[in-house]
Amino acid sequence: MKTFITDPQEIESKSMQIITEELGAGIDKFDLSEAAVVKRVIHTTADFEYADLLGFSPGALDGALAAFIKGRQVVVTDTNMIATGINKKALHLFDGRVDCLVGEEETRQAAEKNGLTRSMINIRRAAEKYPQAIYAIGNAPTALYELLRLVGEKKVSPVLVVGVPVGFVEAEESKDELRKAAVPHIIVRGRKGGSPVAVAIINALLKLAAQKQQGAFK
User: Which of the residues 35, 43, 81, 90 is marked catalytic?
Assistant: First the structure.
């Protein structure tokens, strides 16, 4: 029977080594923090195209890392899948929390009453509670559009918007709007993205914040 690696840490280390080797000089266009995020997304998706699709607004990562280290940072998500996938142990190191209101009865009722998606109401309600949260949107373009509307009306001032909704209807367009907005952001250009990508980005940020706090990452 073929022998294979069974140690999780060794598997991850070997994966990152392969990713780094295959990216080659293509990773040099990113700074160290951005490169760590890119590699984590590729590790999650096995898709090297993300090295060309991921975009970072100036200073976005520095602001997010500082917010995590400061403590008690809230991460708002547009799906329960993202909320579940975020590393709670890492988040709790900074007394942070994650919240998603999309499945609540109040959200459902408000969506039906107003003729809107639950994702939009989720963002609207979350913005009232957490105007300076980190917003991770991986599924619903309508959620991203609603967040951008609230940003434009100065009702919310996100620390960071991870805008990576996936799909064929308004996904690419909503991310183009985020790219042009005056808000710190990480995007995936085009149709690709999704909840696993959003999770990978947030978990990469949490790991970077922990390393930075310990002085292991400058």
Answer: 43
